[in-house]
Amino acid sequence: QVHLVESGGGLVQAGGSLRLSCTASGRTLSSYFMGWFRQAPGKEREFVAGITDSGDSIYYADPVKGRFTISRDNAANTVYLQMNNLKPEDTAVYYCAGRRSSRRSYYKDNFEVWGQGTQVTVSS
Q1: DSSP 8-class letter at 43
Q2: Mind giving me the DSSP string for 61-103?
Q3: Residue 65 clears pLDDT 90, i.e. is over it
Q4: Quick one: which of 101, 79, 81 has its CA closest to 32?
Q5: CA 116 from centroid of its chain's CA atoms
């Protein structure tokens, strides 16, 4: 069983940067498609970014394209989300999720494993 733990959230001013990390224990992430999702108060959990098991394909939601970068280090069993030029509308709880497949998915119901989430707050 994979256990995911996110870190790196916090409070930042608009235009600033944060780097989120998601570290796994219990099982290697090397066979998982990994994604980052976020959920703002009163809103549905939405896909932010995803990366295939090998890291050779990457996907982003339109609102974060050009500002966020997802990456992974399978040797360290860790996935990252570098967030630059943050905006107040990026404020949300950010979740790391794993899908035991090499196939991409943008749908939260297709991910079997979730972290507990980390709060990101962007002030204007």
Answers
A1: S
A2: -GGGTTTEEEEEEGGGTEEEEEE-S--GGG-EEEEEEEESSSS
A3: yes
A4: 101
A5: 12
